[in-house]
Amino acid sequence: MTAGSLAKSLTIRDVARHAGVSVSTVSRVINGKKVRPELETSVRQVLTDLNFRPSAVARSMVRGTTQTVGVLVEDISSAYYAELIKGIESVLERTGHHPLFKSSHWSTVLEEEALKVFLDHNVDAIIVVGGFIPEPRLRELAVRLPLVVAGRSGLSLDVPTLTLDQRGGAERATRHLIELGHREIVHICGRMTQEDAVGRLQGYRDAMRDAGLEVRPEWILPGDFLETSAYRAMLGFVELNLPFTAVFAANDQMALGANLALHRKGLRVPDDVSLIGYDDLPMSAYSLPPLTTIRQPAQQVGEAAAHAAHDLMTGKTPRFPTFELRLVLRESTRALRR
Fold it and tell me: Which range of residues forms the domain containing residue 263?
């Protein structure tokens, strides 16, 4: 038997026997509770000699916590969610908690499966980002354990809820193109089942209406927030030979897909078509040309959600900072040439 397998087979009773103390004394030492100094020294020496590592399950039974937080997002592989996850991890690791991440992939079935996994693992709190979990189910979760919701608005829940002004951000993006002289502006939507996509489409419509501009149905292209959908939508639109001078994509990933489609069709950004995205992902500053976009502070949103979860777990009242969605000017937009 190897030293590693021996360490795994040891129990707290073995430690107590080697140290000549009771099981309860060993438990108190492991969990940082006060015992006589000479007993603590003896127990810690045995723990070192035997290379004993108490299981997480055993510690959780003593502490009443698992030091884990369930985090449900729509797509872990998404560049936006990767930034948000980075923020959650950076906060939780400083609190001694470990995130348990699950993706729903925009599926209500997978959302419920993820929640069951979290509850089966006795997580200490849950962070839900976006998604479609019904309000009664969220309310049920909030009764059982600390719950933080991000990216959902209009909920009548007594839980910390973090939302950003997606409609206002999209209005700002579209207004930027209008101020540059553009009047024929295409919008590539996200999934219309998602609140963010609906808000951004509304913001586009708001800006066009306020400027007295028509929104033609053919200017609104379907997408799903992924590069491929925008690439295909943009290719199909260009092939219709309809006039347009600018494109507002509902996120940076789709803006990059649209950019490639325009390139394939011989259209230059921004000389022939101005292009603006949304999110300000790290890669957007390094695209060709660097992408003008709306900065949505994904990492800071993740940090705020994690802080709120920790506050709830420690009996504090969470307070969210105010997040500004601001225009980031780069080289993919320019004034319309008359």
Answer: 166-295
